[in-house]
Amino acid sequence: MRLVIARCTVNYSGRLDAHLPEAIRLIMVKADGCVAIHADGGAYKPLNWMNAPNRLNEEEDGALWTVTNEKGEKLIITIHEVISESSAEMGTDPGLQKDGVEAHLQELLAANPDLIADGTVLVRREYPTDIGPVDLLCRDASGSAIAVELKRRGEIDGVEQLTRYLEFLNRDGNLRPVTGVFAAQEIKPQARVLAQDRGIRCLLLDYDEMRGIESNELKLF
Amino acid sequence: MKFRCERDALVDQLTASSRAVSNRGGALPVLTGVFLSVDDDVLTIIGSDLDLTVRSSLRVTVIDPGKAVVPARLIVDIVRSLDSGAVEISIQGDEAKISGGRSNFALRTLPVDDFPILPQPSGNKVTVTSEALSYGLRQVVMAASSDDARPILTGVLLSAEEGGLRLVATDSYRLAVRDLPDATVLNEGQKVLVPSRALNELIRVLGDADEVVVRLGDRDVTFDVVTDIGSVQVTTRLIEGEFPNYRQLIPSSYPNQVVVAREPLLEAVRRVKLMAREATPLRITQKLNTLELMAITQDVGQAHEEVDAIYDGEELTVAFNAEYLIQGLEAATGDEVVLETLDALKPAVLRSNSGGDFLYLLMPVRVS
Questions:
Q1: Higher pLDDT, A131 or B34
Q2: What is the pLDDT of residue A100?
Q3: How close, in Å, is residue B360 to chain A by CA atoms?
Q4: What is the pTM of this model?
Q5: Using alpha carbons only, how large is chain A's radius of gyration in Å?
Q6: Over the stretch B317-336, which tens digit does the pLDDT of each residue have?
Q7: Taking Cα atoms as reference points, which of A21, A66, A72 lies closest to residue A47?
Q8: What is the tally of helices (H) and strands (E) in chain B?
């Protein structure tokens, strides 16, 4: 990632023509070739940009940048004064984790298996079965296996999923009998009924409490 | 299946049953519909999400007996949109035809064989005066939680208390208790937890009915109500679990007691609440023979009002959620209420100054 803060003028020539008059702006040149010109405001949208693939030519001792894409569209940046310039190797981005809470709940419960029942110990997170990994496999105080499926919102689908895992886990003579715990921040009444009908225990998780965050709210209970 | 009836009565019964219908149907798409059956001059309409079931019935002119399941929301909207007068509904194959006046609708039915066989109500019948039960329920149901994360708090506790019935509900921020001394519904020592959603539906259907018949089963409770146009039966699954021990939260005495006229205080709180925005609490300062109400919302403004009261204790400021305070004042009876406080962080009690059977415990809001 190359970052240049410069007093510059920008002209775009393509499907339409656009002109940014002389001003101080941030020019970002990303590793994949994308070029974006930002003002000192707005959350994310650049004033002008050129997507990759493109070609960046720097002429006149770096004072004239011409970015040309495959369609022949041009972004011409005239740099009048460079205020700062830096580059950094950022590596591959791991991507957006859509549900960090669910992953964090798994991590927190794995660290505190006593929340499932006193004396419970963790065997493994993401314990593999033939149809995919179950979130947690634990042993209770008596040594019996417990499979735990974690959700933010506990619905019928989650109970069905855990039922399928239990069916496979109970085929393993080293684990059998495996009981199920359906753990979620919120469990829908129908999911609760289905779980109880199948002998699966429901466990409500208080995310704040698990993180050790004390609420400032005053409560009766 | 074919029958004819009056539009207004049909709308009422369809609406009552459709309130129990699941929005999405979940694992059973047929549950997005209402089950209709006509036989012996009676139309029975059933809506259910398997937790709550509402069966309503209505006398109709039966042309051809039969049964069908039709999309609940759609049929309610269609029948409601028709002009008053006769409505005719017939089922041909997988199509329901609805006609009234010069309007005609045809809609696809849902597979009738998929509709689950719902258990019949069980338990002994106990008849209760509708008016007292309806009023008592209205006083407490609003305090029940709507947060499914704590299912026990989404219910109303019904417990046998000194020969009568006690209703208790809490969302952990406030708690409402109402005693119905003359209602003998439960056996001595018995207590059950009934979903507030079902009780809200019961309150709607009780309307002007004189009596309600209660049948308590092992896992469910059924309320039968006969109305002017037919009958409505509400069956709900009971909530399993232990209701919090609320008795320990109610101190036997309070050092600070303010007596204040209920209606003027209620109006003042409603006015001051206009400036209690974005979860800003309403502050009440108890002064000599005065209650001072104040709400300040940063960058918006503030409101201030004084209300006459009878108080000779030390000056004390306690902040409350304005909406919860309003609901407590609305539920309380009598011309005057007593507000009892310990300090700014302990639960306060609101009750009628003339005694009565209602008590409202309200948790303060912490303010800097």
A1: B34
A2: 67
A3: 12
A4: 0.70
A5: 28
A6: 999 999 999 999 999 999 99
A7: A21
A8: 6, 25
Best residue of A152, A209, A218, A219 to probe chain B, by most B CBs closer than 10 Å: A218
Look at residue A186 and tell me whether its pLDDT is greater than 70: yes
Give the DSSP H or E segment for A189: helix A189-197
- Residues facing A204 on adjacent strands: A184
What is the average per-residue pLDDT within A83-91? 93
Nearest by CB: B26 against A156, A204, A220:
A156
Q: Could B148 and A156 be called an inter-chain contact, meaning their C-beta atoms sit closer than 8 Å?
A: no
Task: Give the closest-approach CA distance of A193 to chain B in angstroms.
Answer: 9
Contacts of B320 in chain A (CB under 8 A): none
**Best CA proximity match to B31, nearest among B16, B13, B17:** B17
> Does residue A98 surpass a pLDDT of 50?
no
Look at residue A219 in the predicted model and tell me its pLDDT: 87
Q: Which helix (H) or strand (E) holds B215?
A: strand B211-216
Say whether B50 and A188 touch across the interface (CB within 8 A): no
Give the residue from chain A lying closest to B362, CA to CA.
Answer: A220
The distance of B128 to chain A (nearest Cα, Å) reads 29
pLDDT of residue A214: 63
pLDDT band at A16 (very low <50, low <70, confident <90, very high): low
Beta-carbon contacts of A87 under 8 Å, excluding residues fewer than 6 positions away, are A1, A2, A3
List, in sequence order, the alpha helices (H) in B68-178. Answer: 72-81, 130-141
Alpha-carbon distances, residue B292 vs A120, B313, B315, B317 (angstroms): 54, 14, 11, 9
Chosen for mutation from B28, B148, B249 (greatest number of chain A CBs closer than 10 Å) is B148
User: How near does any CA of chain A get to the CA of B173, in Å?
Assistant: 5
Task: Dump pLDDT digits (tens) for A154-185.
Answer: 899 999 999 999 999 999 999 999 999 999 98
Q: Which residues in chain A are contacts of B345 at CB distance < 8 A?
A: 218
Query: Residue B278: CB partners within 8 Å, gap ≥ 6?
Result: B297
Query: By percentage, how much of chain A surpasses pLDDT 70?
Result: 95
Question: In the A/B pair of chains, how many CB contacts fall below 8 A?
Answer: 52
Interchain proximity A220–B361, CB inside 8 Å: yes
Tell me how many degrees the CA angle A175-A181-A187 measures, rounded to the nearest 5: 160
Give the residues of chain B that fall short of pLDDT 50: none
- Per-residue pLDDT tens digits for B69-105: 999 999 999 999 999 999 999 999 899 999 999 999 9
Candidates A186, A193, A220; nearest CB to B148: A186
Q: Cβ A220–B151 below 8 Å, yes or no?
A: no
A189 vs B26: CB contact, 8 Å cut-off? no
Flag if A218 and B175 touch (Cβ within 8 Å).
no
8-state DSSP, B110: B
Helix %, strand %, coil % of chain B (to 5): 20, 45, 35
For B235-264, the pLDDT digits (tens) are 999 998 889 999 998 888 888 999 999 999
Residue of B nearest to A221 (CA): B172
